[in-house]
Amino acid sequence: MSSPSPQQRQQLQDELTRAVGTGRINIKQFDYLMGIVWSSESLADFDFIRRDYLGQVAQPHQHASAAVRPNTGKLSSPVPLKTTLGTIDLNGNWRVPERQEFVVNAGTLRIDLRQARADSLITEFNITGRMATIHILAPAGVAFENRMTNNIASTFDIDHTDPNPNAPRVILTGTISWSSVKIRRANGKENWWKRLLE
Question: Looking at the whole model, is its pTM more than 0.90?
Answer without folding.
Answer: no
